Structure formats: C-alpha cells, structure tokens
C-alpha cells in the first residue's frame, strides 16, 4: 500500500487557497464589495481634505512668494521657525495658550463628567430628558451669538449684570476690557455652550454599567456616594482616559473664533494665542510661510502631547488609543 503525504490528503481547494493567499484576499474583497463601497466616501473625504493638503506644510520651510508659485519659491529650511522662536511675542503667545489650555483641563474637562453623573442620578425619565434637552441647546448656538449675549450682559453701558452690581455696590466692573477677567469669561462661555453636549458620551458609558452591581452594593449597605466611587467611576474610567488623551491633542487649540470675538485692544496682552496670531500674520499681513511655521509648531506639540499622555496612561495600567 502506497502511503500518501499530508499535502496529498488535503482537499484540492485548501491546497490551492494556501498556494494563492492573494486570491483569498480578493475573494473577501469581492464578497464585501458593498461594505467597502460604503467606506469609499469617508476615505475620499480624508484623502482630499486631510492628506493632500498636508503638502502645504512645506510652506513652513520656504519663503513663499505668490507670483513665483509653490515650487519656485526659495527653500529657507528652519529660518521661519528661528524667527518665530526669537520673536518676543513667542513667550506671550505660549503663556496665554498654555494658561487657557490648563484652565480648560482643570475646569472644562471634568464638568461634563460631573454633569453626567448628576443626570444619571435622576430617576424620572421625563425630567431627565427635559434637562438634557435644555443643556444641549447652547451647543447649536453660534459663537457670534454667544459673544453678543456676553456683551449685552456684561457691558458697562446698560448691561444687566453690571446694573445689578452697581445697585449692590455702587460701582461697575469692566469685564469685557479687563485682562483679569478675560480668561474666566472664555472658560465660562465654553462651559455654558459645550458642557451639556459633552455629557452625551459619558451618559452612553453610564448606560452600560451593570445594574446588578448597584443592587449588590445596596444589599451590602453601600451609600450612593460609595456606589458612585466604587462602581460608577471605575466603569467609565476607560472612557475618561481616552477622551483625556484626545483632549490633550487639542491642548493648544483655543478656538480662534471665540478668542477673536472676545479680544480687544485693552485685553490683547492676555488674549493673543497661536490661533489668532496665525490669522493676523498669515491673512492680514500675507506672511504665509511664517504663519504656516507657527501652525506646524502647534500641531507638532499636539502630537507630542497625545503620544506622551497615551504612554503615561498605558504605564498606569489603562488602555490607550494606540
């Protein structure tokens, strides 16, 4: 009796599949062609609007002259970056941007978490949905409207808040032009406008918490505060970490429109940030290469912050985003 080898015992289709792995990949592509077709619009969006424009960062290393064009403009290397770092305005921009970013992490980032935890304690679904609807509305209001409301409320010339302060103390506070009040106003606007909208992700995470854990905790005599500390917060900790990592990528993004609308000649020293500076030197002064270098510097810092925060999160035993 002739012994057959292992390859001869296998079906012919399996042997052919092993011999042609690319054929198997092609078969999966053909099988899932409609799903891949749904992916095509999103893929094209990122290619056209995200990846192709990345060639524009080369302007940061050129002395771009519009009449010469992109390719004919002189290559200057890191001269634009040296000019920016040696400019006295760099330290002012860095200080203002870092302080606003720090206030954002301290005050704004925890606010949706706290609000979501409070909403999670509301047992009547009608009241819960009503509160959610009310706090979501400011998200859909334009920042121009928010700045206008802020002006009407706080102006010294008939502002409601200042009129009440004047009646109580006999003096008015110049909120809109004071350097000391600029950063609190920016953070307050962000809280009012986006705090409610930011609760959506955390409420979704809270909805996935196993209710049997709460029932077991009640049987053991745990108070609502202990349930919050030992069950609720650990359940959404992963979501908090991931959002914090993503938030750090936007640490230097302070909202160009908001800062531009709230800044004026009297609070300019604390209002200037990287975003408004890029607009000023790039659009109004035509320094395209210099402004591109500033924007690229900000983006590189954002990438470093994301990688560092992700690394620290994984070192602490949490799952990062990569």
UniProtKB/TrEMBL annotation:
Annotated TM spans: 34-52, 98-118, 130-154, 228-246
One Pfam family here: BPD_transp_1
GO cellular component: plasma membrane
GO biological process: transmembrane transport
Superkingdom of the source species: Bacteria
Protein's cellular compartments: Cell membrane; Membrane
Protein source organism: Paenibacillus rigui
Swiss-Prot/TrEMBL keywords: Membrane, Transmembrane, Transmembrane helix, Transport
Family: Belongs to the binding-protein-dependent transport system permease family.
Residue ranges of every copy of the ABC transmembrane type-1 domain listed in the record: 94-309
The protein, known as: Protein lplB
InterPro entries: MetI-like (IPR000515), MetI-like_sf (IPR035906)
């Amino acid at each position: 009796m002739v012994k057959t080898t292992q390859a001869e015992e296998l079906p012919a289709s399996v042997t052919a599949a092993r011999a042609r792995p690319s054929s198997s990949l092609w078969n999966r592509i053909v099988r899932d062609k409609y799903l891949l077709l749904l992916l095509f619009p999103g893929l094209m969006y990122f290619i056209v609007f995200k990846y192709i424009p990345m060639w524009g960062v080369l302007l940061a290393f050129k002395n771009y002259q519009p009449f010469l064009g992109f390719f004919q403009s002189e290559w200057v290397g890191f001269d634009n970056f040296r000019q920016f770092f040696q400019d006295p305005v760099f330290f002012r921009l860095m200080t203002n941007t870092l302080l606003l970013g720090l206030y954002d992490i301290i005050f704004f980032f925890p606010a949706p978490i706290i609000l979501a935890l409070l909403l999670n304690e509301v047992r009547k679904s009608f009241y819960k949905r009503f509160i959610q609807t009310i706090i979501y509305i400011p998200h859909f209001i334009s920042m121009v409207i928010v700045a206008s409301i802020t002006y009407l409320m706080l102006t010294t010339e008939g502002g409601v808040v200042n009129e009440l302060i004047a009646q109580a103390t006999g003096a008015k506070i110049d909120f809109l032009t004071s350097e000391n009040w600029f950063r609190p106003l920016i953070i307050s606007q962000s809280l009012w406008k986006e705090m409610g909208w930011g609760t959506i992700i955390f409420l979704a995470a809270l909805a996935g918490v196993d209710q049997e854990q709460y029932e077991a905790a009640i049987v053991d005599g745990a108070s609502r505060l202990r349930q919050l500390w030992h069950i609720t917060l650990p359940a959404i900790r992963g979501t908090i970490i991931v959002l914090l990592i993503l938030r750090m990528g936007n640490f230097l993004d302070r909202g160009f429109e908001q800062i531009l609308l709230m800044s004026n000649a009297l609070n300019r020293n604390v209002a200037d940030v990287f975003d408004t500076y890029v607009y000023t030197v790039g659009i109004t002064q035509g320094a395209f290469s210099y402004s591109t270098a500033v924007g690229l510097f900000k983006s590189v810092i954002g990438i470093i912050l994301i990688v560092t925060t992700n690394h620290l999160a994984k070192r602490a035993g949490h799952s990062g985003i990569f």
